Amino acid sequence: MNVLVIGSGGREHAIVEALSRSPKAPKIYAAPGNAGIAQLAECVAIKDTEVEKLLEFAKANNVELTVVGPEASLAAGVVDAFRAEGLKIFGPTKAAAEIEASKDFAKRLMKKYDVPTADYATFTSFDEAMDYVRKGTLPTVLKYDGLAAGKGVVIATTMEEAEATLRDMLLDTKFGEGRVVIEEFLTGEEFSLMCFVAGNKISAMPVAQDHKRAYDNDEGPNTGGMGAYTELPFVSAEDHAYAMEKIMQRVADAMVEEGVPFTGVLYGGLMKTPQGIKVIEFNARFGDPETEVVLPRLTSDAVDVFTAVAENRAPETEWSEEATLGIVLASKGYPGDYAKGFVIRGTERVESKLYHMGTAMKDGELVTNGGRVMFVVASAPTLREAQQKAREDIAKIECDNLFHRTDIGNKAFK
Ligand code: AMP
Ligand code: GLY
After folding, report:
1. What is the DSSP string of 244-280?
2. Is position 110 within any domain?
3. Is 354 helix (H, G, I), strand (E, B) or coil?
4. Least packed by Cβ within 10 Å: which of 20, 211, 271, 362?
5. What would the pLDDT profile of 324-351 be if each residue is shown by its tens digit?
6. How many helices (H) and strands (E) does the chain have?
């Protein structure tokens, strides 16, 4: 069986690795893949948004199943294009992916179907937005409406900061044509609940927690994620049942009702607030880096799971009981400017899983080639042991230009 995975990060490495564990031993292609993925799959030089080329490749190589990683591919309409040609593909249509691409779409849907989330209002006018902020309380949450690669959210703690941000988002052209969602500021522990969704049939993956800030103690700028772990002691069985029923199932049903049924992974970015669990955001795809700690726990055949969802059937999933914890190695300077091309040594001594996020091979050596470079993911009977193992393995990797957080998972021990 031939399978194609679209994307090039740690998330796609984890997807490829899960597929490679299938007893069906599929032949895996990755477009474009990366240096780590190349150890398990054949990488083809097609970008994740080159829909026509991806389609041509899939047809020419008898690809029976395609799995989409990045939101950019979804926004480029890859699922629509493959389906139009009768090809099996795991992921939502462009219209269904609006739940991630448009914050306003997501907020309106949640309001209409009574899904718990922060109060909000949407603005295109700078004056009206400022008026609203002045009448409200600080901090206030300002979200640029549109795909902004994680940079579109500003939590303004002063009126000056709010004004400058709204100016950027609504008056300057920096972000393009602007719409801003202004939200009530919520507090509480954040967690990610990803579900396989096939229309109104949903199946939960283990909950995980991302670490978005660059430095220890959640300080520094927001990043694509500096580490993650699963399970989470602060999400009780009751919390989980509530989130599944009142949030994930309700949204799956709502998408069907709205005529944009969802297939693929619906990612709930949730917060356990004093007023109950509320939605911070939805993504229309596997989370990164959560996927890299969640999929190693999948003990079912990943080919069967992805195929079921792509065929609009509920997948049967089983998960190991092990705790899994991962620490990202990032280039110094990330998420700001950083240099590339630094040699990485010692990876062969790592016993944990090692997902590549931004690496390349140069003159036969592994080098840094991105902001987030590698992800060391350890599994163990307890989270403490997993953390210990990940730390030991991180210490084996030698490179002059990498840094990492030392407190990944500590929130579970409070
Ligand atoms: P988002 O891109 O919507 O996930 O936002 C990025 C981060 O901003 C989230 O992970 C939260 O930490 C924070 N955030 C977003 N919305 C809110 C909110 N309403 N209240 C508090 N924090 C928020
Ligand atoms: N971990 C956050 C995301 O995938 O968007």
Report:
1. IIIIIIHHHHHHHHTT---EEEEEEEEEEETTEEEEE
2. no
3. strand
4. 362
5. 999 999 999 999 999 999 999 999 999 9
6. 13, 23
What was the pLDDT predicted at 295?
A: 98
Alpha-helical segments (H) within 85-158: 98-101, 103-112, 126-135
Amino acid identity, position 128: E
Q: How far is residue 397 from each of residues 133, 348, 366, measured CA to CA in Å?
A: 47, 9, 12
Residue 414 pLDDT grade (very low, low, confident, very high; cuts 50, 70, 90): confident
Is 22 a member of any domain? yes
Domain of 330? 323-413
Q: What pLDDT is attached to residue 144?
A: 86
Structure tokens at 140: 């206030």
Collapsing DSSP to helix, strand or coil, 42 comes out as strand
Amino acid at 203: S
Shared domain check, 272 and 159: no
User: Model's pTM, two decimal places?
Assistant: 0.95
Q: Which atom of ligand 2 is nearest to the CA of 225?
A: 1
Calculate how far, in angstroms, residue 153's C-alpha sits from the geometric centre of ligand 1: 7
Q: Six-digit token pair at 195?
A: 């579900």
- Split into its structural domains, the chain has a count of 4
Query: 114 in a domain, yes or no?
Result: no
Query: For the chain, how many residues are written?
Result: 414
Question: Strand, helix or coil at 45?
Answer: coil
Examine the domain organization and report whether 283 and 335 are in the same domain.
no
Q: Decide if 109 is inside a domain.
A: no
**What residue owns the CA closest to ligand 2's atom 5?**
287
Q: Whose CA is nearest to atom 2 of ligand 1?
A: 150
CATH code of the domain in which 148 resides: 3.30.1490.20
Residues 24 and 32: their CA atoms lie apart, in Å, by 23
Q: List, chain by chain if needed, residues with CB within 6 Å of any ligand 1 atom.
A: 118, 141, 143, 150, 153, 155, 183-186, 190, 212, 269, 280-281
